[in-house]
Structure formats: C-alpha cells, structure tokens
C-alpha cells in the first residue's frame, strides 16, 4: 500500500495498466462480473473475469451481469491506505448514472478514519482512468485532496468518449441504453455511434456498416483532439475486435502528430465489466486534454 499524505483510489473499470497505477500509487478496487452462477473480480489474472471470458459468455448467451464494489470493500481500501500513512484520500470512479460505485464510495467515506473526497467522473473506462491519473499527477505535484479531486472532475468533464457497438442488444439487456433507444427505436440492426454525455450513454449518429462507423470515429476523435487546443491523451479500446481497433489507431496516428497527441496512442481490450454491457465488436476512442 503506498504511503503518502494523499492517496488516490479508483475502480477496475478505469482500465489503468497495473504498472502505471502502481507507479503513481493509485489503489484499484475491483468490480464484479457474474457469469452464470459464478462471481468473479474484474481483472486479468487467473480466476478473474477477463474480457475474453465475458465475450465468450455473451456469444454463448450465458447470463452475464455486473455488480459494484460494496461499501465495506472500499472502506477496507481506505483504511489500508490510512494505516500506510495516508492523511486523506481521493476516490475517483465511473459515472454514478451508470453504476452504484460512487454511492458505495460515499457510504464508505462517511465511516473512514481519514477524509475522503469522492469524485464522480461522469465517465466510463479509460475516461475514468484519465481522471484518476489527473488526481494522481496533482498529488505528485504537491496538491492537497480537494485540489486533486477538482483536477479529476475537470478532466472528466473535458474528456470525449465515443464508441461504436455492433448491436444495441447488450446495452438494452443491461438497461443502459437510455435515450439511445428513442433515437434508434427498434432498429437494433443499425450500427450505432454513441457517446458519454452527462454521465450517460447518449446517441450520436447511426451508420449502416462497421467500416463507416470506424471512419466516423476517426473524424470525431480528430475533431475532439483539435478542439482541445493543446496536448491530449488518446486511447482506443475494443472487445474482441483487435484488427479494427489497430486500424483505428493507425489512422489516428497518421493524423495526430506527436505535438498534438502528446504521446503514443494506447490500444487495449475493454475491461470485463464494461464489456458485459456493450458486447463483442465494440470499438471506443477516448480523447482527454492533458
């Protein structure tokens, strides 16, 4: 457990590579995935819910659901940090509109022995991860908990998260389709482009082919990066769709120069929890100002 005056805690949906989180002292608390009658912590290790496990279960129509971390689990993380020397905690999580994780964190914060700033990023996936990184970098620069929490909130608001799904069916099953249902109606065969807006899944556009969807994701990501007016971090994620994700990374890398992108565009598979709600074939791109 990292020692220090302020410790940043986030959840596994933030999609932060283990080495990166550890290097910045970020504590990651897992959400759970229930596949059939078995519950697993989200993660990449043996015995955990991996993206491949979830994708296979969805394809086989095995029931898949997800659950937030309990307040007790978060409280345990806070108290471990306190025993390690933390005097305050910044707890950064995925949108409260999409998960009860923020609520669990708020309940745990009331019982913690040190002050806890709970941040609802109004984002999902690496959008949440970028907010957690903003908090951790602020702490590394000497910021107090309130300032680090403000940095996380600001970055969450400034981040653009766009994604394409092969079908709305998985979002519909999980009850997270929201206003997208009104736009697309019963036309579940269309190829929807969606966004995270005010913490919810919201409709953006619809196209007829996955190829066109990839092209529009590219254009929209470039627009978002250019509008930022400075360095950005860009990440591409997928679920069981590595070839198309790699194509998108290649196209974006050719259009976002080093000065604009700030660093190499990252690419990885979406975590099991979020993957359970979007289904195989999903491609996402996230653009976050530095």
TrEMBL record:
It comes from Nocardioides kribbensis. Keywords: Lipid-binding. PANTHER family: DEGV DOMAIN-CONTAINING PROTEIN DR_1986-RELATED, FATTY ACID-BINDING PROTEIN TM_1468. This is DegV family protein. InterPro entries: DegV (IPR003797), DegV_C (IPR043168), DegV_domain_contain (IPR050270). The keyword Transcription does not apply. SUPFAM superfamilies: DAK1/DegV-like. It comes from the Bacteria.
């Amino acid at each position: 457990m990292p020692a220090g005056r302020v410790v940043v805690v986030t959840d596994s949906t933030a999609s932060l590579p283990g080495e990166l989180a550890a290097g910045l002292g970020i504590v990651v608390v897992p959400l759970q995935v229930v596949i059939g009658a078995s519950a697993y912590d989200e993660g990449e290790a043996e015995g955990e819910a991996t993206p491949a496990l979830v994708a296979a279960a969805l394809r086989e129509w095995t029931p898949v659901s997800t659950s937030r971390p309990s307040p007790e689990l978060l409280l345990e993380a806070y108290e471990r940090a306190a025993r390690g020397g933390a005097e305050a905690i910044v707890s950064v999580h995925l949108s409260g509109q999409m998960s009860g994780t923020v609520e669990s964190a708020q309940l745990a914060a009331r019982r913690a022995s040190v002050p806890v700033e709970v941040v609802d990023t109004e984002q999902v996936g690496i959008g949440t991860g970028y907010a957690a990184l903003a908090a951790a970098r602020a702490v590394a620069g000497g910021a107090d908990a309130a300032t680090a929490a403000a940095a996380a909130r600001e970055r969450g608001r400034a981040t653009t998260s766009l994604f394409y799904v092969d079908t709305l069916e998985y979002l519909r099953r999980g009850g997270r389709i929201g206003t997208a249902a009104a736009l697309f109606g019963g036309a579940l065969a269309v190829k929807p482009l969606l966004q995270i807006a005010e913490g919810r899944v919201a409709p953006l556009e619809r196209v007829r082919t996955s190829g066109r969807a990839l092209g529009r994701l590219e254009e929209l990501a470039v627009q978002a990066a250019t509008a930022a007016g400075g360095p950005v971090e860009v990440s591409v994620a997928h679920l069981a769709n590595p070839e198309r994700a790699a194509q998108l990374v290649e196209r974006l890398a050719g259009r976002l120069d080093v000065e604009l992108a700030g660093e190499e565009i990252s690419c990885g598979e979406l975590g099991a929890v979020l993957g359970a709600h979007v289904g195989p074939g999903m491609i996402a791109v996230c653009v976050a100002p530095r």
